[in-house]
Write a structure and sequence with these properties.
Layout: E1 3-8, H1 20-29, E2 34-38, H2 42-48, H3 53-60, E3 68-70, E4 72-73, H4 81-90, E5 95-98, H5 100-103, H6 113-121, E6 125-129, H7 137-140, H8 143-151, E7 156-160, H9 164-177, E8 191-196, H10 210-222, E9 226-232, H11 238-248, H12 254-269
Parallel strand pairs: 1-2, 1-9, 2-3, 4-5, 5-6, 6-7, 7-8, 8-9
Helix pairs in contact: 4-6
Amino acid sequence: MIFAHHTHVFPAEIRPDGTVERLLKSMDSYGIDRAVCFPPFPYHMSQARMGNPNDWLQQEIATHGDRLVAFGALDPESRSAPDEVRRLAGLGVRGIKLHPAAQRFRIDSELARPFYEAASEAQMVITFHTGVHDAPIELTRPALIDGLLFRYPGITVTLEHIGGRALREEAIGVIQNHRAFPRNPENPGRAYGGLTSVAAVPTAHPWYLGREGMTDMARTIGAELLVFGLDYPYNPPGHFGRLVREIRQLPLPREKIDLILGGNLSRLID
């Protein structure tokens, strides 16, 4: 089974190429069984005046629960964030997507502490964008996630794009620093590397990793701590097939490929 992380879905009036229906058709075309969906960030939804994006996503995927899994999105510095985390947890939502660069907040912001405390109590997975993205690097560098993992023991994180080219070693350090020791296949660690937009993209891409880099990543931090993502709709549907082929062709045992293509993500959130 292929279970993909990191798909953004939108109302048709915001992004007609990013709807749930188009995502499902693309998944069918490229043999992807399940996917984690992120709602639009609140600033997206304000353009359409459609209210709470988490409620919108719940309604959109209600009839596709066997294939699509909802994460939440919110402003972690808002006073309402802790209550929203608790509400989402009550609905069975297992994770939150944060994009510090696009949302313009410092990862370890003091204002976000109540959010992180609530997320830790709810044992949430927090998916962070990591890597340069037109924002001050000191606000968004992966090393800041390291402190969160020590301070909030209930959270698990994914570092999407694994820090990109510019901050990859820093991201790897965070993942290694929170790996289980001794090794534990059932609970390998609290920080995962997100193989999202790192392969099947131009080599000049700021997050490019490529087949050789992914192989090195699997050997450096362990295939059990990697999840692949689609970054739909920012990557076109044809990207899905190319990415799956790239991963299947890695010189790794079949069981490790299966972990990357869905086993790890299923262990994290199912």
